[in-house]
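Please produce the structure of this protein holding pyridoxal-5'-phosphate.
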Amino acid sequence: MMDQMDDLARIDPAIYAVIERERQRQLDKLEMIASENFVSNAVLQAQGSILTHKYAEGYPGRRFYGGCEYVDTAETLALSRVKELFGAAYANVQPHSGTQANMAVYFSVLKYGDTILGMDLAHGGHLSHGASVNFSGRLFKAVTYGVYRQTEEVNFDAVREAALKHRPKMIIAGASAYPRTLDFSRFADIAREVEAYLMVDIAHISGLIAVGLHPSPVPVADFITSTTHKTLRGPRGGLILAQAKYGKALDSQIFPGIQGGPLMHIIAAKAVSFQEALAPSFKRYQAQIVANARTLAQEFLQHGYRLVAGGTDTHLILVDVSAMGLTGRQAEEALDRAGITVNKNSIPFDQRPPTITSGIRVGTPALTTRGMKEKEMVIIADFMHQALTAPSDTDLLAKLQAQVKDFCSHYPLFAEEWSAA
Ligand SMILES: *Cc1c(COP(=O)(O)O)cnc(C)c1O
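Below is the modeled complex.
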């Protein structure tokens, strides 16, 4: 357990030091990477448990190893809780990651060389939706859609045009850097028109969807995939939801298709996080994430920044820093020196390459877990603005870092108010 690491400290001081330094970094800095979060001690304890010892290839009640009676209960609980959480008929909680979940869905109904239609990486999509450097772009013929230049919201005319032109076998909705609500029913209409499967990847917004703060794709999509470690605030991993008729094919694509033994300690930790997500406090937590992102958006607008799509409906904002005479990389570096962790991010129609970019992606899930609310967001936006207006003022950035550290010292990594009890 994370609070009792005396054996680790004695046996492997080098790794112990890594963990302690990383813990201090997480405590002292403002974690604003939109895909990160802090899990509860309960999740951490399940994940750090002796369940890591167990081989359990197969599924509950039909394993290829003996001694699975207790881990079967963990997986069964995870499955029933996640189905209740999202109102889904079928679930699989074994994917080791979001990308593995996507791979299993593709392999369940696609053949090599089939066409898939996903959101352009440069417009907010994910690598595993058909990027040329990813397996999805190497094994399948990937075509893309993007956002309108004017509104920077999903260009459904382009989705439909590409669907009619390329006749994809699967349409993929979902994004890693998109601040607005996604209209899954419009994707579903287009998928139906061209007889394509619809997969919705809710990796970033699954927490919002679980509590009804973002429309759910479950009624309209064939397949839904997610990570468990972003807004959902569970251990690092993935999951698949689907209509019941796809269950058999999906199960066999995860195992034996692309994975061996499931990570039973992680599956137990997923079960814990799903129980937390079913508690009323989780809805308050998600609502606070969105309120915090809106407050940050207002503050940035007031400081004169341009936001992609004009603002946010979700847990993240994309700030165009080019008008401030900065690149995304420079902004990321300046903020880092001020103790604020974000990632540079391409903005739609970015003139700069992905290693430089014109924007930063800023998210509120982790800060909200620490118990920060609107008034803290106003202070944080001010810290950020100070750093971004003096990106080469070493003294100022150092002074800001000390202020940020002092500010952070008032907030535990996981605030009591969100505990499921
Ligand atoms: C984060 C993310 C994933 C991938 O998750 P990994 O667990 O890192 O493989 C997949 N899809 C989207 C949209 C994501 O944002």
